[in-house]
Design brief:
alpha/beta; TIM Barrel; Oligo-1,6-glucosidase, domain 2; 5-stranded antiparallel β-sheet; binds alpha-D-glucopyranose; binds calcium ion
């Protein structure tokens, strides 16, 4: 049996600080803005916050390029603001999960600045410096491709060597094989835990161990730098040296991870990470990571079922449909037209929440998802500000200008900027994110005129009020926390249905994932007279459950059955 830990009965809210709330009127979200919204978070009912990076950073990748791990980004505030924020959270029963970005630093971090000074510098070996190939040594040392496109190596004229960056060239990879680097990471982790943090979301943690000698690999080197040879040793070491001494949780970002690998990272007896984010249901299918995979319901259900069964009683799942790197879920899974019919948007946002959050695992909701925010329209290349999108346009310009139109189309549905538009607090100009007179750092979605927190608070039928009900039902519910998961109707291409079972009690979850009315026959054995209670639905007149039911467009229902 697996251990009881606080994160197994938590509901986590992800904040992307730059886009959440601007507290001082400079157009950029910040910590004082977060402090001003703590009552909102408490009222929503969430019990933990995952805060995307708030450390000192030149912002090449909005804080995922850190130049000082022990200080706060100037635009976001000060360490004192951070302390006030944590106290405000803890006082409201909300825990704080910080973002730990230690696969790489910023190229402006003092370690890299030193490292660049020359081959003999004591910090040289904090990073991967290698000679180039070819006669003039100007070809990259291997075939590894950056996650943002192009070679993962950058040439440095001064020393005639290249350094490795699996993300932007302003994000040089740290060399974890150097014990000094591992000691620095342990020190950073300890610093924030001592300051009051309750855990970490570990950024691209599956990349930290590289195959010795950095050989060419398949698919742009993927098999040489993901789940590398020493990764379990390094994570176990971090656990033993620091994490095990605190009542904290860790969740590792693990794109491409399989169930078998996830068990190695999260098996309790292994003492590495507590949980991971798997990516199979939000997968991309092109080598440039541009196009999200087409959503086939049957396949997606299969993915959920595989993970639910695969980790049951052995590991722990993370439940999410959105984050700061993904398109908005109503746009991705339902209708990519940002102007989609408002009633359908509301119905489907609730259905999607029902579909995911009654599974087993720790639930995460991304800022704005709780009011059903959508993607934004990109009319022009300059509408994209994310470093990944910009790199793609650069590559297209250089190698294949005729693909510009295709890139625009692909990025419409894929761009990370979709999730990074300012949080929509009200219908005013700038959506209450920043004062109306100020230019926000990034475009506000025009649909804030009717999709916003203020509107949602006044509408009993809003997505927001639905989330509040759902969170209340979920927290402390032993069937949801511990119950076994059984998928029903696995062959259906329209309906996702499953039950959760614990000690003879059941929850039945039925979701019509299509925009049409359907008749559903769950099972011949389903006893229509059993003691059934409807506990949540996105239609207010949903009927009692029997062996057959008629479901309206995007209708979702949850029943408690004794
Ligand atoms: C993770 C983050 C992403 C960032 C990248 C590099 O994937 O979620 O936003 O760009 O790591 O740190
Ligand atoms: Ca600000």
């Amino acid at each position: 049996m697996i251990k009881t830990r606080w994160y197994k009965d938590a509901f986590v809210y992800q904040i992307y600080p730059r886009s959440f709330c601007d507290g001082n009127g400079d157009g950029i979200g910040d910590l004082r803005g977060i402090i001003s919204k703590l009552d909102y978070l408490k009222d929503l009912g969430i019990t933990a916050v995952w805060l995307s990076p708030c450390y000192k950073s030149p912002n090449d990748d909005n804080g995922y390029d850190i130049s000082d791990y022990k200080d706060i980004m100037t635009e976001f505030g000060t360490l004192d603001d951070w302390k006030e924020m944590v106290e405000g959270m803890h006082g409201r029963g909300i825990r704080l999960i910080m973002d730990l970005v230690v696969n790489h630093t910023s190229d402006e971090h003092p370690w890299f600045v030193e490292s660049k000074k020359g081959k003999d510098n004591p910090y040289r070996d904090y990073y991967f410096w290698r000679k180039g190939r070819g006669k003039d040594g100007k070809k990259p040392p291997n075939n590894w491709v950056s996650r943002f496109g192009g070679s993962a190596w950058e040439y440095d004229e001064a020393s005639g060597e290249f350094y490795l960056h699996l993300f932007s060239k302003k994000q040089p990879d740290l060399n974890w094989d150097n014990p000094k680097v591992r000691a620095e990471v342990a020190d950073i982790v300890k610093f924030w835990l001592d300051a009051g943090a309750d855990g970490f979301r570990c950024d691209v943690i599956t990349y930290i161990s590289k195959v010795e000698g950095l050989p060419d690999g398949k698919l742009g080197g993927d098999n040489m730098f993901t789940h590398g040879p020493n990764i379990h040793k390094y994570l176990h070491e971090l656990y033993q040296n620091v994490l095990s001494k605190y009542d904290c949780m860790t969740v590792g970002e693990a794109a491409g991870v399989t169930v078998e690998q996830a068990l190695l990272y999260t098996g309790e007896e292994r003492e590495e990470l507590d949980t991971v984010f798997q990516f199979e249901h939000v997968e991309v299918n092109s080598i440039l990571q541009v196009l999200p995979r087409k959503v086939g319901l049957k396949r997606t259900k299969g993915v959920f079922t595989k993970w639910q069964k695969g980790l049951y009683n052995k590991g722990w799942n993370s439940l999410y449909l959105e984050n700061h790197d993904q398109p908005r879920c109503v746009s991705r899974y339902i209708n990519d037209n940002p102007g989609m019919d408002n009633e359908l948007r509301k119905k489907s946002a609730k259905m999607l929440a029902t579909l995911i959050y009654f599974q087993q695992g720790t639930p995460y909701v991304y800022q704005g998802q709780e009011i059903g925010m959508t993607d934004i329209m990109f009319k022009d290349e300059s509408d994209h500000v994310d470093v990944m999108a910009k790199n793609i346009f650069k590559l297209v310009k250089k190698y294949a200008p005729f693909l510009k139109g295709y890139a625009m189309k692909a990025l419409q549905i894929r761009s990370r900027d979709n999730a990074r538009t300012p949080m929509q607090w009200n219908a005013e100009k700038n959506a209450g994110f920043t004062p109306s007179s100020v230019e926000p750092w990034y475009r506000v979605n025009e649909n804030h005129s009717y999709i916003n927190v203020g509107e949602a608070q006044n509408d009993p039928d809003s997505v927001l009020n639905f989330f509040k009900r759902l969170i209340k039902i979920r927290l402390g519910n032993q069937i949801i926390i511990k119950g076994e998961y059984r998928e029903l109707l696995p062959e259906s291409r329209d309906v996702y249905a499953y039950e959760r079972v614990l000690d003879g009690k059941k929850l039945l979850v039925v979701c019509n994932c299509k925009n049409k009315t359907l008749s559903v026959k769950l099972s011949d054995k389903n006893d229509p007279n059993a003691n059934q209670k409807l506990i949540l639905s996105n239609y207010d007149d949903a009927g009692a459950c029997g062996c057959e039911m008629t479901l309206r467009p995007y209708e979702s229902r949850v029943y408690e059955i004794n």
